């Protein structure tokens, strides 16, 4: 190409020599003869000239040519009164197919040969690289031309700017080199245009919508970047690369999409806390929760998105999904803090802590009161005792601390919180009454807690005492007196006269000696919360029992979910003290809230850490509770047996009548096999109470109600703690379900669900209709066509159907909670005020094993 002459060039581009020479001359080239050499530079000069002088293209008709048109708009400032006008630039570009052009070198020359054609010819004549250069040059020319056109069109456009703005067409979406003239928003209300230099800024600034879109894009990018970062990719570099790709568009020759699909699975290290919700676990693996649910389902566990699963299960899921597991202990801070406390030192023998239990009216309170009055105030002239939930007595036998909340309700409530505050239980049995249901319950509770007992046979001053009967009855429940060869001391007392009280205290000392109760007085104080309340004047006040070490005024204390610096210590004599040692109760002030009875407390060194741990516990509390809910379910019993080698199914059983109690208890216990033991940890006649629920919680038992229901307190605990409560009315069904759970079979497919409860407020009797109960629906909805039961004192007394359900005089199909209604029970006329009518449904239960 380098030694091409004008003649050769003319042949190549299909022009005659004189015409070409003329055009070259016009372009400022010095060529005069057909033999003059034409260099590449010359060709470019000619091309530029032709472009300049013939900006527009007239005709392109041949199929071998592709014509692309593009309109661009821009705004310029006129300089007059701050007006702006809109300039529209139309651009056309022709590409000529090379092969066809080569085929017709001798084609007749058109009358007026357009520069475009010439450009095409030249581009075709040049090598591929040269063609690109030519295009670049063309762009340059186009830009210049646009500028010229702007100037030329200014005046006209000034008038027509408004219409032109409205008719703004879309830029042709063609694959042409991107022009540097960008579209301006056609907005008439634009603020006065800034000076020219500022214009480009304005043009490039995205409008609001676009900005929002860009933000969306950025978010998307950031999400992508997070992935990248995890893979070790350089965030900024990648982002810049992608942005470049997008903004550069086709012109940059990089039309790739920003997102790059990973070519191989990404293995993440997933840190799993002790419990985690399915949603959070999915989030940690950067997958959808559905995938986790699906994976778990395939592994045989049906879970929901909000369900909390334990660490082990989560670890299996994570491994199953191909990621690495990193187990994290949530309470690392707490453990570290607690492990930092030393309880080493010289041990001393500490006093025993005693709880008094027994049947109603057998004299628990009287006994505690007698001992307090007789012993506490000793030596304290006119000493006035105050009830702080516990008190301590000292006499020649040694000291004893009594927990001053008689009955097993408090005992089980504490145990349910994992506290073992009691060393010895005094079982009070009235000599004239013998063993009663609550006596039996008390025995069960102390046995479940593994606490030794001393039996106080009370009211010996009364006539009709039959000691042998009591010994006999108690022996049937596994409490055998020493006289009969057992290991339980029986002491005859009178809480009224005080007879036998000394012997009782002596007996307690004897038991405690066997227990070898030790403590280190110089260690920091720790123990258990006995009770707490919010005092109007003093703020949160808690009675704590120091079990080890010494609690001092000014100590920083962590108690359950709360913490604080001890401002004051008050003992049972209402005296301010500076410190209390092991086995002593004391009331403390200074906590930031009221801990629960049974919560542990300890003196810690660092207030900041105490606060952190308290905060962590508060957050963790809910999680732990949710995770625990899964644990004591009948359905899960079998699966746990394999895992944790739990070979015991604990049951708290309440029934309607004594007859069923024996039958059910016997039948349940007979289910025990070599591998699995069924233990009825507590049983009794009557509704399910808060105590039953607490006992179930403490012993991880299932609560079974046979024709009885849970009262409000029990329901609250059961719901809060997620205990498994089951109601039955057919013995066979009860036994069958426990058997199924034991043998690892699936949960029953059908279950009863209580859908509504109405309370009977009034009863009307009509001769023809019978009894109509005026009721208030207190829970759920009462349905006309569902089955019902009548409950009296939470015990089922009738099961059947409704005869009628009315609102005023209208028959209705259902009545919602908080609404009054009239209920007629079919074939049953003995409804009484205070009864409850429960409406239930048979629902299908998903098999979960
Ligand atoms: N005669 C006689 N009566 C007693 C004795 N101990 C208690 N009582 C009476 O028995 C009744 C019940 O005594 P409490 O101490 O209230 O019995 P409790 O076991 O605490 O009863 P609850 O608090 O209802 O569980 C009271 O009227 C006492 O006066 C006793 O040793 N002899």
From TrEMBL:
Instruction: Please list where the region (Disordered) is annotated.
Output: 50-263
Q: What is this protein called?
A: Translation initiation factor IF-2
NCBIfam families cross-referenced by the UniProt entry: IF-2 (TIGR00487), small_GTP (TIGR00231)
Q: Where is this region: G-domain?
A: 352-500
- Localization in the cell: Cytoplasm
Listed Low complexity bias regions: 162-171
Q: Which residues bind GTP?
A: 358-365, 404-408, 458-461
Question: What does this protein do, in the record's words?
Answer: One of the essential components for the initiation of protein synthesis. Protects formylmethionyl-tRNA from spontaneous hydrolysis and promotes its binding to the 30S ribosomal subunits. Also involved in the hydrolysis of GTP during the formation of the 70S ribosomal complex.
Output the PROSITE patterns linked to this UniProt entry: G_TR_2 (PS51722), IF2 (PS01176)
Does the record bear Ribonucleoprotein in its keywords?
no
Keyword annotations from UniProtKB, A to Z: Cytoplasm, GTP-binding, Initiation factor, Nucleotide-binding, Protein biosynthesis
Q: What is its main location?
A: cytoplasm
Protein's UniProt keywords contain Membrane = no
Domain (Tr-type G): residue spans on this chain = 349-518
Gene behind this protein? infB
MF terms from GO for this chain are: translation initiation factor activity
Family named by the database record: Belongs to the TRAFAC class translation factor GTPase superfamily. Classic translation factor GTPase family. IF-2 subfamily.
Q: Where does the source fall among the domains of life?
A: Bacteria
Q: Where is the composition biased (Basic residues)?
A: 232-246
Per UniProt, the ranges with Gly residues bias are 247-256
Identify the InterPro entries for this entry. DNA-bd_dom_put_sf (IPR009061), EF-G-like_DII (IPR053905), EFTu-like_2 (IPR004161), IF2_assoc_dom_bac (IPR013575), IF2_II (IPR044145), IF2_N (IPR006847), P-loop_NTPase (IPR027417), Small_GTP-bd (IPR005225)
> According to the UniProt entry, where is the signal peptide?
none
Give me the stretches of Basic and acidic residues compositional bias: 54-63, 97-109, 127-161, 217-231
